[in-house]
């Protein structure tokens, strides 16, 4: 069942088309990732789905509700964790959660609900500590817990691990996966971290310049490339390339005493190729196998790597603000 659908949704800021005619469907119960570089339109798309921005044209339904005609119903169905920190520093974790619950009119079993959500993000021990004493990772986890207090059907996370250290990032991925398992929740997240999208998302939409470039599961996206890249180093690389042709590998590149080619299931083909080289007395100095990553997928579909676009001043500023809790 589709829990989110968009039909040609578009957002223009004067001349700039931040989200350009996007039509997507998100299935219930999955983790859906919007992956793209800075300025690709991820936040703008999410902002429209959570009814914080109005589309210039097109439409969308979230949990069956029209974002333009039933914004209140949409809001009641969703939890949001935005990039910029919005916790009250001077309050305890409990008080922050209580405040959020009051805003959403959650009264029944409040203490039990709060206990449950803090348990889920591993903050039970710090429930009554003041937020300004929390680390960046703890604040992030508390923000996720807060997004869950009113039991949303869909949780939107905008760059959930931006600026966090690798260990904390991995821990947050586990909390997010747990949420889906325990609450059968649909999660939509934006990220420009390839490993994040690869590790936790069931489906990924790659977005660039406001357009969805490709949408599928990480494994299908990776398999859609030409296969694994194998590089064999040999003092007789040219001769080796000639032999490869006989095994059906037509296209290979010779460079710096190495021969590089693409094959499916590279790990299975390597022993055969090394055996052939041995039979012809062609020495092999090294073998390298590279499985396609989402980086390769991004490069394939957009013609550039996502890293070329990141590390922007905008990110650094956000990370600093987040670290300072502002
Ligand atoms: P990031 O990873 O940096 O958050 P993003 O993919 O979320 O990037 P958006 O924040 O949606 O991208 O921005 C998409 C484009 O729209 C960018 O070119 C941005 O500068 C522009 N933009 C975003 N908000 C506004 C605004 N309020 N007014 C004008 N332009 C805007």
Q: Report the uncertain regions.
A: none
Please trace the helix and strand order, writing H or E for each element: EEEEHEEHEHHHEHEHEEHEHEEHEHHH
Q: Could you give the distance between the termini?
A: 39 Å
Q: How much strand content do the residues show?
A: 25-35%
Q: What would CATH call the homologous superfamily of the largest domain?
A: P-loop containing nucleotide triphosphate hydrolases
Task: Explain what this protein looks like in three dimensions.
The protein has about 325 residues and is of the alpha/beta class. The chain has 2 domains: about 1-220, Rossmann fold (3-Layer(aba) Sandwich); about 225-290, Alpha-Beta Plaits. Helices cover about 40% and strands about 25% of the residues. The chain has helices at about 40-50, 70-75, 95-105, 110-120, 135-145, 165-185, 195-200, 220-225, 235-245, 265-280, 295-300, 305-310, 315-325, and strands at about 1-15, 15-20, 25, 30-35, 55-60, 65, 80, 155-160, 185-190, 205-210, 210-215, 230-235, 250-255, 260-265, 285-290. It has a 6-stranded mixed sheet, with helices on both faces. Helix 4 (about 110-120) packs across helix 5 (about 135-145). The radius of gyration is 24 Å and the shape is elongated. Adenosine-5'-triphosphate (ATP) binds near residues 13, 38, 39, 42 and 192.
């Amino acid at each position: 069942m589709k829990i989110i659908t968009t039909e040609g949704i578009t957002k223009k800021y004067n001349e700039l088309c931040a989200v350009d005619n996007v039509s997507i469907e998100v299935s219930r119960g999955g983790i859906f990732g919007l992956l793209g570089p800075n300025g690709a339109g991820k936040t703008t798309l999410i902002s429209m789905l959570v009814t914080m921005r109005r589309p210039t044209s097109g439409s969308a339904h979230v949990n069956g509700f029209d974002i333009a005609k039933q914004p209140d119903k949409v809001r009641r169905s969703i939890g949001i964790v935005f990039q910029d920190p919005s916790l009250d520093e001077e309050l305890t974790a409990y008080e922050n959660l209580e405040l959020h619950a009051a805003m959403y009119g959650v009264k029944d079993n409040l203490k039990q609900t709060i206990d449950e959500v803090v348990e889920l993000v591993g903050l039970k021990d710090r429930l009554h500590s003041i937020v300004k004493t929390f680390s960046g990772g703890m604040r992030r986890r508390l923000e996720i817990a807060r997004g869950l207090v009113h039991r949303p059907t869909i949780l939107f996370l905008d760059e959930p691990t931006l600026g966090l250290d690798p260990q904390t990032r991995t821990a947050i991925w586990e909390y997010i996966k747990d949420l889906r398992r325990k609450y059968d929740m649909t999660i939509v997240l934006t990220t420009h971290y390839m490993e994040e999208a690869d590790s936790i998302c069931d489906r990924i939409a790659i977005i660039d310049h406001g357009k969805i470039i490709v949408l599928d599961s990480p494994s299908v996206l990776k398999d859609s490339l030409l296969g694994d890249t194998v590089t064999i180093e040999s003092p007789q690389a040219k001769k080796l390339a000639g032999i490869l042709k006989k095994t059906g590998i037509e296209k290979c590149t010779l460079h710096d005493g190495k021969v590089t080619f693409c094959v499916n299931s590279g790990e299975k083909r390597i022993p055969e190729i090394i055996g052939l080289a041995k039979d012809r007395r062609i020495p092999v100095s090294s073998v390298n196998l590279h499985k396609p990553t989402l980086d390769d997928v991004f490069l394939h579909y957009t013609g550039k790597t996502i890293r070329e676009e990141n590390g922007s001043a905008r990110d650094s500023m956000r990370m600093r603000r987040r670290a300072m809790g502002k």
